[in-house]
């Protein structure tokens, strides 16, 4: 079991936290910053290519997954989005990357998580059915091919995720760059 996917223990953990604390300074909680949080799955095929999707709502490709809703973990968001957009019920594997991205235009800063989606089988690929108002296509590509269709920060994040497949620890990035190399 990964995380609280089936809420096993979650209710007990929430009860153990006790009553929520009251605001010492009324209104402070509503003034705290909000961040976007998203979870994505890095799927690959037997040749080592990665699965990319083509969203209908933006000009660049992405990996399957999406934004977390209020009170939803990045892992649960990833699982939900892949199920909704591709009709795949996949239990995400281990965490590969956490990447903080800065505000860009109208988009707030955010924290992006990539989990290992493993190798998709022929049967799983046959079951894919894209949600037409979200995705127009999907394909397996090399990292170099993906680079032609994603923003530079996502390319860096994807390269770190692929490298993390061969590591025992996830990578922590800021805007796609490993800050431990500084």
UniProtKB/TrEMBL annotation:
<feature type="region of interest" description="Disordered">
    <location>
        <begin position="1"/>
        <end position="25"/>
    </location>
</feature>
<keyword id="KW-0378">Hydrolase</keyword>
<dbReference type="GO" id="GO:0016787">
    <property type="term" value="F:hydrolase activity"/>
</dbReference>
<dbReference type="InterPro" id="IPR000086">
    <property type="entry name" value="NUDIX_hydrolase_dom"/>
</dbReference>
<dbReference type="InterPro" id="IPR020084">
    <property type="entry name" value="NUDIX_hydrolase_CS"/>
</dbReference>
<feature type="domain" description="Nudix hydrolase">
    <location>
        <begin position="33"/>
        <end position="165"/>
    </location>
</feature>
<dbReference type="Pfam" id="PF00293">
    <property type="entry name" value="NUDIX"/>
</dbReference>
<protein>
    <submittedName>
        <fullName>NUDIX hydrolase</fullName>
    </submittedName>
</protein>
<keyword id="KW-0460">Magnesium</keyword>
<dbReference type="InterPro" id="IPR015797">
    <property type="entry name" value="NUDIX_hydrolase-like_dom_sf"/>
</dbReference>
């Amino acid at each position: 079991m990964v995380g609280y996917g089936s809420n096993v223990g979650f209710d007990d953990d929430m009860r153990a936290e006790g009553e929520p604390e009251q605001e010492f300074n009324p209104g402070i909680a509503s003034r705290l910053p909000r961040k976007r949080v998203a979870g994505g799955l890095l799927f690959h095929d037997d040749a080592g290519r990665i699965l990319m999707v083509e969203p209908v709502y933006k000009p660049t490709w992405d990996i399957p997954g999406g934004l977390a809703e209020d009170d939803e973990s990045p892992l649960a968001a990833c699982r939900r989005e892949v199920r909704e957009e591709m009709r795949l019920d996949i239990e995400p594997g281990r965490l590969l990357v956490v990447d903080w991205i800065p505000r860009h235009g109208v988009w707030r800063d955010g924290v992006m998580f990539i989990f290992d989606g493993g190798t998709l089988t022929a049967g799983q690929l046959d079951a894919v059915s894209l949600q037409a108002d979200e995705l127009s296509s999907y394909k397996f590509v090399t990292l170099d091919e993906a680079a032609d269709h994603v923003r530079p920060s996502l390319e860096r994040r994807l390269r770190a995720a692929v490298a993390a497949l061969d590591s025992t620890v996830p990578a922590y990035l800021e805007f796609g760059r490993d800050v431990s190399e500084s």
